[in-house]
Every structure is written in structure tokens, then in C-alpha cells.
Design a protein that fits this description.
Layout lengths: L2 H17 L9 E6 L5 E6 L20 H5 L5 E5 L4 H7 L2 E3 L3 H6 L3 E5 L4 H8 L4 E4 L3 E6 L2 H20 L11 H24 L6 H8 L3 H19 L9 E5 L4 E4 L15 E4 L15 H10 L5 E5 L2 H9 L8 H7 L5 E2 L7 H11 L4 E4 L3 E6 L2 H19 L2
Helix pairs in contact: 1-6, 6-11, 10-13, 11-14, 12-14
Length: 402
Amino acid sequence: MTKAQAEMAFLELSAQLKNEGLLEKEGAVQVALRGESGEVFFFELDDAGIAMQESCLGIKDVPLLHAFAVKPEAKTLLLLRGTYAPMIAQSLRALTAELDDMAQIVGLTARVANALSPKEIARCLRARNSCFVKGAGMLITGRSVSEAVTGAILLEKAAMTHILAKKIGGAKRVPLFSAALMHFIYQKKYSKINLGAEAEKVQATPVAKAVQLAQTAQERDLRAQIVAYGRQLQEEGLLQGTWGNLAVRLDETYMLCTPSGLDYRLLTPDDIVKVTLFTLDYGAQRKPTSEKRLHRDIFTARADVGAVIHTHAKICGVFAAARKSICCIEGEMKRLIGEEMRCAGHALPSTRKLSKVALGALGNRNGCLLMNHGVICCGTDLERAYLACKAAEAAAGQQLGL
């Protein structure tokens, strides 16, 4: 990585943090980027013009850099405050994963470092990718810029969930076996898809190009819509990183859905996967979302549904972690969703049990919560499903008094 490449990566990272509101806090954000040959570029930034400074200082001068020794696979380090993270750092010794996205990217717990010292960094990052730091907020490591940014978003979200859930009885931890399994699968499998795509966008195979030529105008339009709505949902904080997925009923035989493990910032219409409804086959295309069964089962059970969106919306996530229904739904929100959003029981992602509990909670409504997981919203088309997602988040905020 050259200095120019590091500066470009830094600008991309700071733009993403600014979009998430993570630069609008007191105190500078520290960023370290490691090149392929081991060179390190260190920057400090704040919201006042996003100033950049490169430093050749070592670990003794910049304690943050010790995280590279603890996490040799890391390419990006972030030290930033957040809004809720400092509250967790001051009140807990560790935060247990209460949503499965934290379990996947961070670990079963996020420890609190008492200081930004080599000893504390080593203790708190052992078998974990991130931690809280007293007086500083949170320390994030990532194997890429986007993984680090997503890690920061999700750890701040986890802190917010824990604190806001106290209003409705408190959040419950993700079942231990499920949390451990999801963390292992993410680190060994799903994250590598996105890392590979980020390093070098995968070229279409001859089979994929042939499929593209066979697309109807309707299919091309729906593919573009899925990409557009996916990015919109991410920009609005309803999707983070590779979490969440979208699917549209194409006809009686096929559905279109987002691919597995690919960040929405990298998504193109050609990446959308055409899946056979009856068999869930997808041929030589990209691997579809692991929740393809859930989408298919909703389409099968509900003839009125033409689009399904599974999000990890932040405020709805508070209710999913607390395992409570969202019931203060009225006016336009009631018309889009129904009289309440029930919380489905626990099930591992992409299993038959998840479809069963989700359909039970969904009923004839257009939204439900998935315990310690996220949200399902549906509608006759993507626009209606998207509006249901927005209405659900608004209803959750209203019930919490935000």
C-alpha cells in the first residue's frame, strides 16, 4: 500500500464513519492502516474538515498500534468514541452478545479495557475482534476497511441495544451455542466472500454472462431495484455490512435475492441471484443469501407477498434483543405493518425452524421480529416492503419514546 492508496482508503473510511454519525462526537478518531509489506500509515481525524496526518511513530508513541501485534491478520485499526460505547465502557466489565451480528463479527462478548495499554489490548482482543476502552470508546480491528467500519457500527449498535433495552425489561443474551457457531461460521466462511470481493471484484463467468443475456426487461428492472433499495436501507442504518437480505418474487417459478456475504456497497445487478422457488437451486451463479429458504417459505405461504426484506434495523433490534413485541403501531404504520410486530422464538439462521417460527409470528401481518436476530418486513413489491421497514423502525422508536 502506497501513501496515496492509504490516503484514498482513509478518505473512504472517514466518509463511511461520517455517514453513520460516528465522527460527530468529541475527541479525535485514530486510524491505522497496514500495507501488504508491513508498512503502517497512522491518521487522526475529527469532524472539523476531516484533517489527515501521517505518522511514522511506533507502538510506544501510539498505543493503538499494539493491536496489530495482537491481531496479525488485521489491516485496519480504529479508535473512536461513539455515543453509547463510552457508557458501556464506564459501567460494565464486558458486554455479552445480545444480537447475533455482534456475536458474528466481534465474538461472544466484548470486553472493556481499563486503559489503552499493550497488556489491556492483548487481554481484551484475545479471541475477539473489538473491545470497549474506558475514556476512549471502542477499539476496532478489521481485515479490511469495510470490515472495520462495519465492526464499529455493530459494536456501537450493541451498546445502544443494551442501554435502550432497559426501558422494556432488558436485553437477553444470544443462546451460547448459537453465538459460538455463528461467530465461527462468519470468521471462517461468510466474511471471506466479502473480503475477496473487496480486494478484487469477481468477474462474471461465461455462464453468468449467458444468464444475463437471457434476462427479461422485468428481471433487469427488479435486479436494479434490489441493488437500489439495498443501498438505501444501508444508508439509512437499517442494514449493516453484509447483514440483512432482500428477495423479490419474479414469477411462479423463480425469485431474485441478494448474494451471500457481499457488502451492499459492492453490490451490482449482476450479483443478484435467480433462485428456483421449489428446489432452491441457483446453478452457476453467485451463492445466494443463506436465508433463501426463509424468503422462499414466506412467498409460498403468502400469495399476497411479492417482496421480503430482512434487516438488522437498530431500534427494532432493541425489541428483538429484549424478545418483546412492538405494539404501539397506529396510523400509517398500522396500515403498512399490522396491529403489532410479534417476536418469533429462537432459531438458528437459514434453518427450517427459522421459517416456522417466523411464519408463526408474521401471520397475516407485514412484519415480525426474529429473537436476538433482526426484522422481517414484506409487501406486494419492494417499495411496500421498504416502507414497512421504515414504519417498523419508526414504531419501535415511538414505543421507546425516542
